[in-house]
Amino acid sequence: MKMIIFLNHRKKALKLTVNPWVSAAALVAFAALSVYLTDIASIYLDKRAVQGELQTLEDVKTETETALSGMVGRVSLLQSHVMRLDALGSRLAEMAQVDDIEFGIEHPPGLGGPHNLSDDGSRELSDYDFLISLNRLEQALEDRQDKLSAMETMLMGRSLRESTLPQGNPAEGGWFSSMFGYRTNPISGNKEFHLGVDLAGRSGMAVTAIASGIVTWSGPNRGYGNMVEINHGNGYVTRYGHNKENLVNVGERVEKGQMIALMGSTGRSTGAHVHFEVVRNGRHINPRSYISSN
Fold first, then answer.
1. Cα separations (Å) of 187 from 101, 148, 269, 270, 276?
2. Residues 6+ apart with CB under 8 A from 239
3. pLDDT (tens digit, 9 = 90+) per residue, 207-263?
4. pLDDT at 114 (0 to 100)
5. Are 273 and 280 in contact (CB under 8 A)?
6. What is the pLDDT of residues 127-139, one digit of tens each?
7. φ, ψ dihedrals at 118, nearest 5°
8. Any residues with CB less than 8 A from the CB of 121 and at least 6 apart, and which?
């Protein structure tokens, strides 16, 4: 095999004679060297890629551990909130005298287990332990929510019953001038049954509702003069008669202690007073026990 190499700078040509076997061996060696270098480059690139992936996994692990640590801190904080809710719930239950809702502050639920001698106290919280703690916390929060909701319902119902139960003084500052039961009628002089009590006072004194309810009458009503009637629910109705002026209208909701009229002497009356009646399930009852002295 002949090879001619031109030397331009000298304007000459160099002729070489190469043995074909040598040429073939050189080509084979070059090819092998190329394959070797390619493999070396591929291995290097693969190693770099693996190192990059390992670094990425390490970064993800670090971020996950940091996030888990932060979540464990949040769980601990929420557990302290649950303890405060327990304390608050127990205090409210005690104040409201609710005995059938137990928050378990003085007697916490039984917890425990054998001490792990291989545990030096430095073991990090595992994912499983964290999920167990999170599940227990969720159950605790649901339990407290149900108990507080039940207490709220009970207290609201109790408050509603207390506000609609007749109890108070319809004429603060007045005095009893006639009681419930048989008496001599001050107008006719005949013996009759007095269906309420009379509280005398000055003309224009405030007349107040002794319980919350809905006004079912406001206006003149025969011998009652100007009368206000309030339906309180649970079968209770109260009536306030002989008013100088009514201050509420039919259908209006009134609150306990609200001024509903001004004391007067309208209808069959001998002087300024309020005739007060309490009716329960359609039957007149003695209002005296519903009138508080304060």
1. 58, 58, 8, 8, 18
2. 196, 217, 224, 227, 228, 229, 230, 275, 276, 277, 279
3. 999 999 999 999 999 889 999 999 988 889 999 999 999 999 999 999 999 999 999
4. 47
5. no
6. 667 677 777 777 7
7. -80, -5
8. none
- Structural contact between residues 272 and 200, judged by C-beta atoms closer than 8 angstroms: yes
Q: Which two tokens stand for residue 139?
A: 């159950």
Structure tokens at 138: 């969720």
Left if phi > 0, otherwise alpha if psi is -120 to 50, otherwise beta: which for 231? beta
- pTM summary value: 0.52
Contact (CB, 8 A) for 259 and 205 = no
Which is nearest to 195 in space by CA: 284, 288, 120? Answer: 284
Measured distance CA(161)–CA(164) in Å, rounded: 5
Q: Is 199 exposed, middle or buried (0-12, 13-18, 19+ CB in 10 A)?
A: buried
- DSSP category for residue 195: -
Tell me the C-alpha distance between 153 and 163, whole Å.
15
In angstroms, the CA 134 to CA 126 distance is: 12
